[in-house]
Amino acid sequence: MTRSIKKGLNIDEGLLKKIAxxxxxxxxxIKTWKRACQISPEMVGFVFGVYNGKVHVEVxxxxxxxxxxxxxxxxxxxxxxxxGKMQKELEQKKKEAEITQAKSATAAAVSAKx
Length: 114
Hints:
CATH class of the largest domain: Alpha Beta
Shape: elongated
Distance between the termini: 64 Å
Mean pLDDT: 86
Radius of gyration: 23 Å
Strand content: 5-15%
Number of helices: 2
Strand order of the largest sheet: 1-2-3
Low-confidence stretches: none
């Protein structure tokens, strides 16, 4: 989804009609399938449910998002971790080290109080 100026603005009129004259804080999530729709300043503060092919992902529009597309904030692919069995073992060792460190810190705090 390119943001070229020469292609013109791609703002969905239907979305603008849905938010016209409404308070962003009191309006429920507005569902949309228009991932290519550009975010305009009138949309700031509203929550849009942008469809990613499976579910509607909630997107709270802020001032920094103006000019971007709605689809940029609703990823279509889910990232799965790399590493497999070896990575699981490393994560388990790290978690065990954190648990032992927390236990030793609480034991030190209890002995310091006595």
